[in-house]
Amino acid sequence: MKPVTNGIQATSIEGAVWRKSRRSNPSGNCVELAVLSDGGVAVRNSRFTSGPALVYTRDEMVAFVQGAKDGDFDDLIAGH
Questions:
Q1: CA-CA distance, 53 to 50, in Å (whole number)?
Q2: Overall number of domains in the chain
Q3: Which residues constitute the domain of residue 55?
Q4: CA distance linking residue 41 with residue 45, whole number of Å
Q5: Are 55 and 40 in contact, with CB atoms under 8 Å apart?
Q6: Which helix (H) or strand (E) holds 62?
Q7: d(Cα 25, Cα 42) in Å, to the nearest integer?
Q8: How many angstroms separate the CA atoms of 55 and 43, rounded?
Q9: Residue 22 pLDDT
Q10: pLDDT tens string for the chain (80 positions)?
Q11: How many CB atoms lie within 10 A of CB 32?
């Protein structure tokens, strides 16, 4: 089994079950996530599923999701 590290080809992650948000738009412009066996989370571009995946720890993902819920990134989509 290959170690799962940042930049790994997403299709190389054994046993990954990828999912995307229900809020994904119809043209597929979103990211997909997969929980890893060590509890980490891999993220890939849904339009380039064989491309690289970024890997985050559970704590990093918790911080990101909480920041999104708190509105920390709202300025990135202002006027969208």
A1: 9
A2: 1
A3: 8-71
A4: 14
A5: yes
A6: helix 58-69
A7: 21
A8: 6
A9: 84
A10: 667 888 899 999 999 999 988 888 777 678 999 999 999 999 999 889 899 999 999 999 999 999 999 999 999 987 66
A11: 21
